[in-house]
Queue: 3 jobs
Job 1
Amino acid sequence: MSLSQTLPELPDAALADAADLVAYAAHPALAQLTAVLRAPLLPVIGFAELCAGEATPAERQAWAGEIVAASRSLLEVLDCTLALVAGRPTTTTDRPTLAAAATAVGALRCLLHLPPPGGRPAECHH
């Protein structure tokens, strides 16, 4: 039985949210990984949508700066994640970036059933 058959009275957006919750419960490591990537991506999308609407040139300039900053943040998290997985030093000392990358690495290790450095089994909750 599909989720839409179980909850037919919900609008499409609510069904999508419910499906996301079910997926999260089934794959918390994947949900954790995507949450790390979504956090800096959401401002990129939001500000781009704002720029597409009615706005003054000064507002568009400010929003473009926000898009650039959020995009660079996402790239920094990805670069840091790759460095941590490869066992290389990171190029950042920014604590939120390091924490996001460490969360992503833990989720990746869990999803791929890889032991963490040191060989101890990963604590996955799936």
Note: Confidence is low (pLDDT under 50) at residues 1-8.
Job 2
Amino acid sequence: MCKQYKWILILILLPIITGCASKKVTYTTTGSLIGAGGGYAIDRDGKDAAIGGLVGGLSGAVLAGVHEKKEKKRYRKGYDQGYTHAQLEIAVEDWKTNTGKKEDKKYLKFFERIKIPARKVNDVFYESHYETLEVYQ
């Protein structure tokens, strides 16, 4: 009697120890054991235990498939949100760097005021004035 419980315990614990990669195996094995136990409890007949094990195993496999599908959907949604957020952060950083809102560490930005001298071009006289220029070094 003790030997049977030992095997049942091994069948339950073995898939659990292997981790997430065998989630489908864990659900199927657990479903089979529960179904077989339930089938055997009905009439104490091996045929009912086999049918119960089969039904439990199929139910466990279906449940594992549904659970896996939900996990993949959740993972994909999180991945897409993270990717979108990262792209937005990159775009904002590029915009700040390109518009001068954020100084890039590679360049030193300063303003220089220069005087434009008076001149005459095509009989048009331009007065002397000052211009402010952005200079990057």
Note: Residues 2-99 form one domain.
Job 3
Amino acid sequence: MKIARFNEFILGCCLIVFSGIIFTFERFISVFKWVGESAPVKINGSGSYPTEPVMAGFFDNLFVPLLMFSGVYLIVMSIYEQKKQ
């Protein structure tokens, strides 16, 4: 049973890391899109663009909080079951 709890702990950590990767990738795409929109305006000298990129929020993508909360749940349950015995 110790192996199963350890696997839950590792899976929980992986889910948290994966949700962080998705969130970071979304923010990178937001900046990349903003640069793509602002570069031609800066070159031509006419037009307008936002002064800062519109960053994705934590709850904009359903998978980010779902994976985060699932990972935290698995870690807490694996620690709780370990302390229980």
Note: Residues 2-44 form the longest helix (43 residues).
